[in-house]
Model the fold of this input.
Amino acid sequence: MSYPTTQPADLIAARLDAQTSLELGADLFIGTERPPVAPIPSATVFVAAYGGTSSPDMGVSSDDRYFSVQVMVRGAPDGYAAAETVATDCLTALDRWLPNSDGYVECKVQSAGPVNAGLADQAQPRFTLNVKLTYHG
Done:
């Protein structure tokens, strides 16, 4: 059984950086949601792995592992529509993507659309996407 050398959240963040208007380190960050304090802007996307170590799915000639990643889109105060658009752009970039990188073979968003996660402390709208990555080792 092998494990990927690229962390799941890193792979997802790189995809979003390449396929959307988001820029890693500017308005796209790896890790859990953090407060809007410099250098982290109010409208930001966070990408974090969750769920712990995956269990193998035993196959005939190799094993598949599944990794879970959450994409949290936080908008500016009163920026509901803009945040929802960013979340939809993220969904479009990720759903049914075939990474073919470092053993990752499939990426699926686990819902039909962005899920409204309510407001953050400063009345910032939030949306989430839960993503499942398949690793073929």
Notes: The CA atoms of residues 5 and 93 lie 22 Å apart. The first helix runs from residue 8 to 19.
